[in-house]
Design brief:
Strand order of the largest sheet of chain A: 2-3-4
Oligomer: heterodimer
Largest sheet of chain A: 3 strands, antiparallel
Shape of chain B: globular
Radius of gyration of chain A: 22 Å
Shape of chain A: globular
Largest interface: A-B, 28 and 28 residues
Radius of gyration of chain B: 20 Å
Amino acid sequence: MIPPLEERLRRILDERYHHRHPFNVRLHGGRCTQDEVRRWIRNRYYYQTRIPLKDGLILTKSEDREFRRGWIRRIHDHDGDEARTGGLELWLRLAEAAGLERAEVASLRNVLPGVRRACDAYVEFVASHDLLESVASSLTELAAGPFLGERAEAFRKHYGWIEEAGLAYFLSRTSQAPLDAAEGLAYVLAHAKTAEDQARSEAALLRKCEILWALLDGVEWGGRVPRLAPAALLREEDGETVVVLPERAVRISASGREILAACDGARSVEAVAGAVRARHSEGASVERDVYEFVERMEGLGVLQLRAGS
Amino acid sequence: MKEKVRPLVKERVWNLVAELTYRCPLRCPYCSNPTALRDFPELLTAADWARVFREAAALGAVHVGLTGGEPTTRRDLAEIVVSAAAAGLYTHLVTAGLPIDAAGLAELARAGLRSVQLSVQDAEAAGSDAIAGTACFERKLAFGREVRALGLPLTLNVVLHRRNLGRVRELIELARALDADRLELANAQYQGWALANRAALLPAREQLEAAARVVVEERARAARPELLFVLPDYFRDRPKPCMGGWARTHLVVTPDGRALPCHGAAELPLAFWNVREHALAECWRDAPGMNAFRGEAWMQEPCRSCPERARDFGGCRCQAFALTGDAAATDPACALSPRHALVAAAHAEPKLEGWRYRAPA
């Protein structure tokens, strides 16, 4: 006997929602360092900025005036209106309360590539799937209500260096998320009548769980510590460096060489970006270039990344 | 900050493949050595190789694969490694893991060896030894452990065919157990010995697709080892960009001193020069065989006007010759080739249980 759809959806959340991700377990357990909490806040802001975009896409998929009137509230919740401060602003206040610079966070220049990919994948998923699947993918909200209450408590208890005023985002979402979730669930249960539609709804929710999971993987990556692979041989020739590895050679320009030099086996990926930035006064893309470079070098085996301390 | 990494498109000898000998204690039925092994004696001495390494480095080579046959059958291998390292080349040994032993490996490491590729033929002894034609599986594993114990990077290489494609997960587990850095799941290329044994080796499409799914799952499960798996050209509509283009970045020198653009080119009716008679730079630049398929002027239709020609170079010249008799033909693996039916016919061939071992060893 197949359990009813709601039960199947809730089981997916129980098993695959990011409350089980190792980073989140450490975050709520008070075992994250100040740098890690800040990295999470800085990167998660990118996710917040994608939410109104995907909700805008969902609005375009419905011919139903009632549906749109309900759903547009989510955009106001995040962007704010005359009466209320929106979720994006509240997140920037959280960032400030945690000692980050508002402008730096808002610039998105330190968003890690895995985080960027995960968040962009969510917007792309909604853009390329129908209304039912898009709404189903938002049902992670079903797990978010109690989860965010727990998060606010954990921050008060373990990260007292963040002022209470900074926690307003979590508190606002603890009341908004259950309402959003109830509406979304009602829509999916009412419209997923065939076995095929139900399977599509489940797959959409699973995909969303994978995206949130990948986001935290991306946050953890920023704390890893890169070093040159012990097997690598560096050769200097004609103003560029050739890194030779077993069965592979990679040509690297002077600016890439500078990044490699900053990968000293002690700095995290994020600290490498900071060190390179400190030596450049140029435009805002330095960090993003460093992250993409480190990622490519990791993929080619030029750099090895170990877990941060 | 742009363009920090450039691919190896710059045309120059980047990689030297030094075939030190065709002798081998194994008899694998897909060996990439020539099918007429008797015709090519081992003539280059360690002193000859030292000169080849210096000349290759002067041409821009940064990496040498010391291969064969089985390179560790040469008693002067340590001397050869010393001269390759002295020439500034990254020294990479491609071996079956025998007859070399732990002491021999330690000697090579002292001589300047930087990394090792070890072949196994399957994930378990019976299947591996059956393909190798000799009992050697346990000895290979012991050798692999010695490589890692010395701190050298280890690549495990397995040629895949229909008898072992079902054990890709076990092969990945074996590579993990050996703490290998890379696992090359190398689908058999149907030339030379492998072409002669194609009816015994060619897999079914479903086998390949199942193996590809396992690779995707295992890549997601762990970062190590790096998994290399490419769907073979017999199962795609496009040919492989063989060697990154004819005589562009790779140079092979055979045990008797011929300089070739790839190990298979020995079977083509082309004139290549010998390093015992010419400087390596001349062999690379001027030999008629080397220039036979450089650039695009040699191409026939449909390659000549195809937008893909700069990417796949018309496919593999050796495969074109082996299947059509014309080395300048479009690779029949390409769906646009007028001879593509040859590949479909290969899939329709009755499968054979037995194979012919490489001979002589």
